[in-house]
Amino acid sequence: MNASPSFRRAAGFQLYPAIDVRDGRVVRLHQGDYERETRYEPTPIDLARRYVAQGAQWLHLVDLDAARLGGYSLHTLVCEIADAGLRVQTGGGVRSDDDIARILDAGAERVVIGSLAVREPVRVGGWIERFGADRLTFALDARQDARGEWCLPVAGWTRDSGARLDDMLDTFAEAGVTNLLCTDIARDGTLGGPNLELYRLLASLAPGLEIQASGGIRDIDDIVASQAVGCAGAVLGKALIENAFDLSDAIDRVRAC
């Protein structure tokens, strides 16, 4: 895909507080490493309600057990979070059309599809035709190799798929994908700041996609910077749960930009 010399500025920038669940508890992983886990006291539903009180409209929910082993299991939690007043974007271990349908039936607004879309990209068009592009978010979680190429690990970031980011962008764009979540794995859980160059590249390569920045966001300035390089939203993980900033302040700042 040929890069455009300019990028679009995202309209209606959206914030997605993130809750990662493992063994029923709220956790964060460092760079996707299951051996480097931090646990947090609030239950998933209590944390979701906290975000509602701070003005959240969306929640990004991840089933970490299923991301590695398959078998999405948070249907009841999705229903509870939706009942609390949040639009839920969720994934982890989605393996089939039936998995997508069951998660949507549980009350999710969007299903996040990662490893399966990378391994079987020809199926993407069929999912869009059946469920609609806006009911799906495709996740390209990327790790830069020694040659500077962006690789796409799968199975909870534990195995290399052999696919490359730019090739998958072409496939997704041709299939009619609308929502793209991209995580720089090296930044995830580090509070090292988002990879703005990566998101600037994505916005120029695929200007028709609504790109969600994920990984490394540490403060409100990082959120605003992600918006400025062309992202349509940002997933807020460790910094938010550890109270580095207040969600309501971030919402106000984004609206003012």
Automatic annotation (TrEMBL):
Under catalytic activity, the entry for this protein gives:
1-(5-phospho-beta-D-ribosyl)-5-[(5-phospho-beta-D-ribosylamino)methylideneamino]imidazole-4-carboxamide = 5-[(5-phospho-1-deoxy-D-ribulos-1-ylimino)methylamino]-1-(5-phospho-beta-D-ribosyl)imidazole-4-carboxamide
Say if the entry is tagged with keyword Amino-acid biosynthesis. Answer: yes
Q: Broadest EC class? A: isomerase
Pathway-wise, it operates in: Amino-acid biosynthesis; L-histidine biosynthesis; L-histidine from 5-phospho-alpha-D-ribose 1-diphosphate: step 4/9
Pfam families assigned: His_biosynth
Q: Which UniProt keywords apply?
A: Amino-acid biosynthesis, Cytoplasm, Histidine biosynthesis, Isomerase
Can you say where in the cell this protein is located?
Answer: Cytoplasm
UniProt GO MF annotations: isomerase activity
Q: Where is the active site?
A: 20 (proton acceptor), 141 (proton donor)
Q: Which InterPro entries does its entry note?
A: Aldolase_TIM, His_biosynth, HisA/PriA, Isoase_HisA-like, RibuloseP-bd_barrel
Q: Which EC numbers does the record give? A: 5.3.1.16
State where it is primarily located.
Answer: cytoplasm
Q: Give coiled-coil spans as residue ranges.
A: none
Indicate the family of this protein: Belongs to the HisA/HisF family.
Q: Which HAMAP family match?
A: HisA
What this protein is called in its record is 1-(5-phosphoribosyl)-5-[(5-phosphoribosylamino)methylideneamino] imidazole-4-carboxamide isomerase
